[in-house]
Amino acid sequence: MKRPILVLCIDRDNDLYEKAKVSGPLIGRDKNLEGAVALSLADPEDPDSNAIYYAVKMHDKMKVDGHAVIIATLTGHRSLGYQADKEISSQLEKIVMEFNPVSCVLVSDGASDEEILPIIKSRIKVDSTKIVFIKQAKELEKTYFVILEKLRDPYFAKIAIGIPAVLILLLSISSYLGLGWQLVGILVGLVLLLRLSRFEDAIGGIIKDFRFSFERTSWIGYIGALAIITIGVFVGYQTFQKGMTLGLSNEKLVALVVGNTMWIFFIGLLVILVSKIADALMEKKKYRIAKYLLYSAAAGLTTFVLLVGCSWIVNLTEPYVDFGTFLLCIGISLVLGYLATSFVNWYRKEILLEMKIEGKEAISEHGTYLGKIVGIDGKKGKLIIQTVFEKRYTLPISSVSSVDDNVVLKAED
């Protein structure tokens, strides 16, 4: 059988899913037309739909010319950057594996998608590229209108307007308090490092897990936790006053306050986690329990290490803690953390086996359709996923993020 040429369209910011709720990749002429129509109706001004239409036109022309051809649209992520490129790479690799195309023709809607070209060239030969512009002055499209359009997008607005606003605010506050610009520089540097390490994605996922709603039983736990945390703040204030009276140095004062309040905050968090577990049981979503158990273990071990560390720094009363004891506690925490993670992974696997998720559709956290789950290999801890073209591959059970009507899988590093 003659190897096909791949007509490839890229939606790097995943507008198909963000605006039209169409999951990528789109493979085949009909799927691409349906996706383009849905996106056009959701946002007639979005240039991605024009690129897909052009790709369909090119597909039809090449087919008339006698070429074996297949069309596909790959989707990235709204935050662009690493996440988008990783999604596109993953989808492209699966398409190359399934269809074994001889080369591809890349259709793009602008400069942003051109950034993915080196990744595509590393996986498949690129015969030509075509950038599709809406009929108007090209340079104008690339500057003025693109800027205005992007500023309407909340994500880009937060970057273009939010970051300068925060910087101005921080510099003004720092100047008013007489702290200089150095503190602002440290804070901005830390934030940039956290973004580089994708730490904010993990924090965002955790915050999402703790969303508050009066429609769930867990609101009672939040009220109780608020009362406990209020007590913790009061205890912290009293401890601070005591430390000032004793004339402690800054580091000992901070350690004294943290050591006397950390366990109170941990109890407040534990109350919330217990209420979230109750929610999961009542909603018959037992799979979420594993996540809350892991959060509980992590919070408990972190509290333990901080309490011992603060005792080592302050050392005002018996039992006195030396540095060796502090290191021993860190080692014990690492071992307990490993055991807790192993138990939670085992518990997660057992829950999945009980839930009988075979037949459910698997999608990524960004809405990309991955296939249908056709089995679970309990011994190897693997999910068996079948694509629309009946190709099978496996992913670790630990990649499961949530289970509802669909099984949501997180990206594996």
Automatic annotation (TrEMBL):
Pfam families: DUF373. PANTHER family: DUF373 FAMILY PROTEIN (PTHR38815:SF1), HYPOTHETICAL MEMBRANE PROTEIN, CONSERVED, DUF373 FAMILY (PTHR38815). The chain crosses the membrane at residues 155-173, 179-198, 219-240, 252-273, 293-314, 320-347. InterPro entries: DUF373 (IPR007254). This is DUF373 family protein. Keywords: Membrane, Transmembrane, Transmembrane helix. Coiled coil: none annotated. It comes from the Archaea.
